Amino acid sequence: MPLASLAAAVGGEMQGKGAGEKEALPTTSKIFLEGREIKFTAYNIGGNNYFKLRDIGQAFDFGVGWDDATRVITIDTSKGYTYESIAINETNFSDPVFRAYVAGPEIDLNQDGILSVDEIEEVKVLDLSKMDITSLQGIEFFTALVTLDCADNLFVALDVSKNINLYWLNCGGNQLTALDISKNINLETLACFNNQLTVLDISKNINLELLDCCSVQLAALDVNNNINLVILKCDGNQLRALDVSKNMNLKWLFCQSNQLTALDVSKNINLERLGCSNNQLTVLDVSKSISLKTLWCSGNQMTVLDVSRNINLEWLHCNSNQLTTLDVSKNINLVKLECSSNQLRALDVSKNINLEMLDCTYNKMASEAAVVGLGKSVTIDFKFEPQK
Fold first, then answer.
1. Which domain holds residue 48?
2. Alpha-carbon gap, residue 279 to 301, rounded angstroms
3. Do the domain assignments include residue 376?
4. What does 135-163 look like in DSSP terms, one character per residue?
5. How many domains does the chain have?
6. Per-residue pLDDT tens over the stretch 286-312
7. Per-residue pLDDT tens for 60-71?
8. Contact 203/227 with Cβ under 8 angstroms?
9. Residue 308 carries which DSSP code?
10. Does the model's pTM come out above 0.85?
11. Measured by CB atoms within 10 angstroms of the end CB, which terminus of the chain is less buried, N or C?
12. Average of pLDDT values for 164-185?
């Protein structure tokens, strides 16, 4: 709601009141900002509503000050609202656990029950994880905050629109159904896993390097603007497609347990870890990902898997596909190989001199003799299935 509309809504405040005393009663008028009701301490005097200018400045986020030399109140719409002093009470901090934490000596340094400007500016890091907090009302006062860990609590909403200096946010393990981080353009790390988000807009967060949005019920995820991403974890959602062609700095990509039918990682040449298990992939081309060290692609529908160019591979997990052959002769750094529940009739590991663990159970191999070049130091899990 623009300021002009607000003035029209409360109307007549600047008119003369006439002589005599007027009774001040709490106003019954309601003010809405973008469809959300804002609670003000306001009074009706002679039929007109009176609000504190600082309350309006706070709600609409513009600067309110005092010029002592000219004794003039100043309004600066080019700057955000700066809090002066905040009472540590139920009105400002509704959750008793959070309120008690703020009232402690680490935040309220002089223990006067009020947060001064200096005390607010001192708060750069907050660790509120695992405290059974039901509401983070009041977090908006900490405008200097750069790191916020509020994981594993009980709140259903989180407003960080005023915390524009945040670069690290962990709000995983709550009950969030929405998360607006459009104002947090400095964010480098965002962990919002294990919530109930069906939509996550990170288009404005171009500085993101790590995103963990596992198990939040996403049906779509657009990371095209996030070209600085190094780690992307989006396991356990409902994604049918995932475009990572613009994310050429990716080193870790985990998109397991979704509904992906295709995954193009041809542009992700810096990938070191790729987890795409439990999807519906029939093809996976990792020939351009020559830095790959870990590949988990189990539980798909692949009949062919070419890892001949992945010479740095240390762990290959390709269980439960439909592979009839598997050539690991070029993967001399391989330490773990798990290829159970496929249709392999033979497996040559003679070149895999660093191999320590092999699981090739439930294939089409008649006996351990079908595994060629097996070293004595290798721990093998083998249950033979008669050839058909």
1. 3-76
2. 8
3. no
4. --TTGGG-TT--EEE--S---S----TT-
5. 1
6. 999 999 999 999 999 999 999 999 999
7. 767 776 666 777
8. no
9. T
10. no
11. C
12. 97
